[in-house]
Amino acid sequence: MDQTITINQTIAFVKSELKNAEGGHDWFHVERVFRNSILIAKDEDVNAFVVSLAALLHDIADPKFHDGDETLGPQKATKFLKNQKVDKETIDHIIKIILHMSYKNSLEEDGKAFSSKELEVVQDADRLDAIGAIGIARCFNYGGFKNRALYDPNISPNLYMTKKEYKKNNAPTINHFYEKLLLLKDKMNTPTGKRLASNRHDYMEIFLKQFYLEWEGKSGLL
């Protein structure tokens, strides 16, 4: 098995599968996560092949867009990887990463039941794409996709959600910053992930300050 060929075939497969995906969870999201994974992996002792394939396949069937089905993505990834003659041990590792990397799964008591350095790398890369300028854009794009309000001062963020509550949450988009995005900086696993997250976190805080100034009709920029 030529790993470069397998990665290129995986890229083609993911592009095809996600050609009509919502803009925050499309091929370009996967590409950014893939690139960030490679960047972070340079400073970690990891299996770069596992990292690459897990990053490329992590959103092949996001449960948010498939009636909450958390088995479809792993099933699709497994079938594809078997067809590519990837060995069973590698496939098992990749599937475990896909199953455990989501933020909502960290809300469960057993959210850390599986761990690996490869998971930490891909998870950091995915979380980086949820914050900063891109994260803000993705957040509001998904909020529009779900027809959610931008902000409602009468609806407070729920800071102690269970996984079940998180999946059913339909609060205004601004609430998501407090319920997830602003929490990610302190949940990064790797030194590179932490460093990159810090700048993106600061940018979100500036954005929120400006948002509230404009919401309240106050003039001037920060």
Overall mean confidence score, pLDDT: 90
What's the helical proportion of residues?
A: 55-70%
General shape = globular
Number of E-type strands: 0
Could you give the order of the helices and strands?
A: HHHHHHHHHH
Structural class: mainly alpha
Count of helical regions? 10
Provide structural commentary.
The chain is mainly α and 222 residues long. It has helices at 3-17, 27-41, 48-57, 72-83, 88-100, 117-128, 132-145, 163-168, 173-179, 191-215. It has one domain: Hypothetical protein af1432. The model has no long low-confidence stretch (mean pLDDT 90). The relative contact order is 0.12. The longest helix has 25 residues, at 191-215.
Highlighted features:
mainly alpha; Hypothetical protein af1432; globular
Structure in a nutshell:
This protein has 222 residues and is mainly α.
Give the arrangement of secondary structure elements.
Blueprint: H1 3-17, H2 27-41, H3 48-57, H4 72-83, H5 88-100, H6 117-128, H7 132-145, H8 163-168, H9 173-179, H10 191-215
Helix pairs in contact: 1-3, 2-3, 2-6, 3-5, 3-6, 4-5, 5-6, 6-10
